[in-house]
């Protein structure tokens, strides 16, 4: 599994989302995901949306995924 594949899976599963994914060892990754779908949702609900895009890869090919989830408005405030 590589970071680009994970980015593609997240962006396909959350239409309109933008994801930046990094991971040097192929099993531990960090991602920043920006999506309108996160509006009004608590962090746990946002993370579940992202995990759902990865299906069975979570816990098998992906051992760890550190997430930062933002709405477009939140992302524009943090630069």
TrEMBL record:
Q: GO biological process annotations for this chain's record?
A: DNA-templated transcription
Q: Which Gene3D superfamilies match?
A: BolA-like
Q: Identify one Gene Ontology CC term for this UniProt entry.
A: cytosol
- InterPro entries (alphabetical): BolA, BolA-like_sf, BolA/IbaG_stress_morph_reg
Q: Which PANTHER family match?
A: BOLA TRANSCRIPTION REGULATOR, BOLA-LIKE PROTEIN 1
What family does the database annotate? Belongs to the BolA/IbaG family.
- Please give the name of this protein: BolA/IbaG family iron-sulfur metabolism protein
Organism of this sequence: Coralloluteibacterium stylophorae
């Amino acid at each position: 599994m590589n970071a680009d594949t994970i980015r593609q899976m997240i962006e396909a599963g959350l239409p309109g989302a933008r994801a930046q994914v990094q991971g040097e060892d192929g099993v531990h990754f960090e991602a920043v995901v920006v999506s309108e779908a996160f509006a009004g949702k608590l962090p746990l609900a946002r993370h579940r949306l992202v995990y759902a895009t990865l299906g069975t890869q979570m816990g098998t090919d992906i051992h760890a995924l550190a997430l930062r989830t933002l709405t477009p408005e939140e992302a524009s405030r943090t630069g």
